[in-house]
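FAQ

Q: What does a record look like?
A: Structure on top, sequence underneath. For example:
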């Protein structure tokens, strides 16, 4: 059995494989190992390569042979639940849960009494492993008893039941929930609470319930004091424990909650949503999302309003992206818990009275582009909002689809299309997946999806699972086809602007190529090109001085002008598109000190020179202003790009002065002192008959 135990339970993959090989050799040569061939088939060299598979699957199969059952259990209890690696401890306790049905009497009469003292012992690792082992074994024993139509306490002595209740009290009295040890103890005891609740232990009305509730609440408040690595684990354990505890111990025979307890719990949790600590908001948001239906009944509006407030960005909590994410996740969970009833009460169901408000909150989350030192933290919020929109929409579709209005459905699909065209692979992939899920859902279909037939042609049903949204080369050729659908044009163009004008080379290359391919298709259609240009100007106007969009948008416009995307308009005198674009560019860079923005605008101004009419003098004037910009790099870039512009569009200047103008541009040191540069710039103005820019007195 030692070789079998090493092959299945050793931490190191090489040792497991060596033990498996040695076991195979002995079986082959001696044939004296019980069930050798059967075990070898399950635990061969390749099978033992996966540690989780070893602990949770192979071990259960081998423990089915009576010769190995007890030695394997003893090894886990003596050597593994106190292991230094927490992953091994947790896997060991799950293995004990899975093996329990093979030896329930041994687990109940020998193992559990041995573990209970260890669960309140002095060694941290042993204590942690023993508590988790008690939780898992207890749950397995109760489940086995119920499956055999016996009382849940069939396998437990009074002493064992009392020992399980004492664990929390003992840890509490010795203050073992504090400090670094608390980071291990809190999730372990919350797991114990969850498993004892799921086991339907006869503790209803026992004072231990209020002790457990205190620990759950305290763990949620404690999230700010623990390391970021432990935070998620504690939060998830506490929320799972809360759901199980409420479902088992807070519901009466009529399926209702005690009104006083419900009032205290819900009011307390909602009030914590406005805590000044972000992690406390996170914890209690998720806790509200985990509450069972009988606790939300009559309190739905209070809960939804509380969660909605968490999702609103205000100056003092702009960086609380994780709280906003968790609140949006909780809103969807609450909706799924209470269910849908169109003409029902706002306090009990998702209904006509609150569905628009729920959607408004979730749609607001898709617009969160907050950034801080961690990067695009708003991405977490957008991702949660997209998932929640999908969950709520599918819930409504399967219950009362008429509650989904055409305008809401259009907003959802348009925002998802925009996210599917953006630059961060992870969020683009998530948005694309949600978009296709809603498009192809047919139990029954989601109503009011704009341009459904065209979308199903662009995204065939059979490609739903195979289309790789993470790959820019696959995603952008598809999503740019939505530019031809009026309902989606604005949002897809908004998303594309950020990608085409972005900094990531592969995203930039494929998004730009897909955009130019679309532009080629509409070159011969003045109506389509006109509509596209109107949408483009609207995107620019709506995002003026919003640097997240406007800076890459300028870069994209520069590329589009250089690629001849608007050639149809260049021969028309004073066409409104270049005039409006020039005005917007001027407004965008007014008083700007952003070098990237200024450099992108120079390219746009140079591209605008190709249009006929009064524009040219204005464009030259603007470029000559930039030749005397306070930043030397901007002066130098402007001179270089104007030089290239004169080479490219030689007909925009009188042939007699082109060479002289280009000589001034190339021979001047534009990084010299401003008075010197200004003199050279004025020579250029006089030569090209453009008014000299005048210094304005401050």
């Amino acid at each position: 059995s030692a070789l079998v135990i090493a092959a299945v339970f050793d931490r190191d993959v090489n040792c497991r494989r060596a033990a498996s090989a040695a076991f195979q050799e002995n079986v082959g040569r001696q044939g004296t190992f019980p069930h050798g061939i059967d075990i070898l088939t399950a635990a061969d060299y390749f099978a033992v390569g996966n540690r989780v598979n070893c602990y949770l699957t192979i071990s259960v199969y081998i423990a089915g042979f009576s010769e190995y059952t007890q030695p394997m259990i003893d090894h886990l209890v003596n050597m593994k639940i106190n292991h230094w690696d927490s992953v091994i401890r947790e896997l060991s306790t799950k293995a004990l849960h899975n093996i329990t049905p093979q030896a329930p009497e041994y687990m109940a009469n020998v193992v559990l009494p041995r573990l209970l003292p260890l669960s309140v012992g002095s060694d941290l690792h042993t204590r942690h492993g023993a508590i988790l082992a008690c939780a898992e074994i207890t749950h397995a024993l109760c489940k086995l008893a119920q499956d055999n139509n016996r009382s849940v306490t069939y396998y437990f002595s009074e002493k064992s039941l009392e020992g399980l209740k004492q664990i929390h009290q003992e840890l509490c009295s010795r203050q073992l929930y504090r400090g670094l040890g608390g980071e291990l103890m809190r999730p372990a005891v919350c797991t114990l609470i969850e498993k004892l609740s799921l086991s339907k232990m006869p503790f209803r009305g026992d004072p231990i319930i209020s002790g457990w509730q205190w620990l759950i609440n305290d763990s949620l408040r404690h999230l700010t004091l623990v390391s970021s690595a432990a935070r998620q684990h504690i939060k998830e354990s506490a929320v799972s424990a809360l759901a199980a505890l409420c479902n088992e111990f807070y519901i009466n025979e009529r399926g209702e909650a005690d009104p006083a307890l419900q009032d205290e719990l819900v009011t307390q949790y909602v009030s914590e949503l406005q805590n000044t600590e972000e992690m406390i908001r996170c914890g209690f948001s998720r806790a509200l999302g985990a509450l069972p239906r009988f606790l939300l009944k009559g309190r739905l509006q209070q809960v939804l309003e509380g969660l909605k407030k968490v999702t609103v960005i205000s100056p003092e909590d702009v960086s609380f992206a994780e709280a906003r994410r968790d609140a949006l996740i909780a809103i969807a969970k609450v909706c799924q818990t209470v269910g849908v009833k169109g003409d029902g009460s706002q306090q009990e169901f998702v209904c006509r009275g609150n569905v628009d408000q729920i959607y408004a909150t979730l749609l607001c989350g898709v617009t969160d582009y907050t950034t801080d030192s961690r990067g695009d933290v708003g991405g977490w919020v957008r991702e949660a909002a997209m998932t929640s929109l999908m969950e709520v929409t599918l819930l409504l579709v399967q219950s009362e689809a008429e509650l989904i209005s055409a305008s809401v459905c259009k907003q959802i699909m348009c925002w998802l299309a925009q996210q599917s065209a953006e630059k961060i692979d992870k969020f683009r992939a998530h948005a694309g997946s949600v978009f296709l899920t809603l498009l192809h859902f047919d139990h029954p279909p989601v109503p009011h999806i704009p341009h459904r037939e065209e979308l199903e042609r662009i995204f065939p049903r059979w490609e739903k699972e195979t289309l790789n949204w993470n790959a820019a080369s696959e995603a952008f050729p598809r999503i740019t086809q939505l530019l031809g659908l009026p309902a989606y044009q604005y949002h897809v163009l908004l998303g594309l602007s950020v990608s085409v004008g972005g900094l990531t080379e592969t995203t930039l290359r494929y998004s730009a190529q897909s955009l130019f391919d679309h532009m080629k298709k509409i070159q011969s259609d003045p109506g389509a090109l006109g509509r596209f240009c109107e949408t483009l100007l609207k995107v620019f106007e709506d995002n003026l001085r919003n640097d997240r969009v406007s800076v890459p948008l300028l870069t994209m416009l520069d590329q589009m002008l250089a690629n001849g995307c608007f050639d149809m308009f260049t021969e028309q005198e004073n066409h409104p598109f270049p005039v409006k674009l020039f005005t917007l560019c001027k407004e965008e860079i007014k008083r700007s000190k952003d070098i990237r923005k200024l450099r992108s605008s120079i390219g746009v101004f140079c591209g605008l020179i190709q249009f006929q009419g009064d524009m040219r003098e204005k464009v030259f004037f603007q470029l000559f202003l930039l030749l005397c910009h306070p930043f030397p790099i901007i002066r130098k870039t402007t001179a270089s790009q104007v030089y290239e512009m004169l080479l490219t569009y030689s007909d925009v200047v009188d042939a007699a002065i082109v060479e002289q103008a280009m000589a001034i541009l190339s021979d001047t040191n534009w990084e010299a002192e401003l008075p010197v540069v200004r003199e050279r710039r004025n020579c250029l103005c006089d030569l090209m008959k453009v008014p000299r820019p005048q210094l304005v007195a401050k």
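Q: Is there anything notable about this one?
A: The chain has a mean pLDDT of 93.
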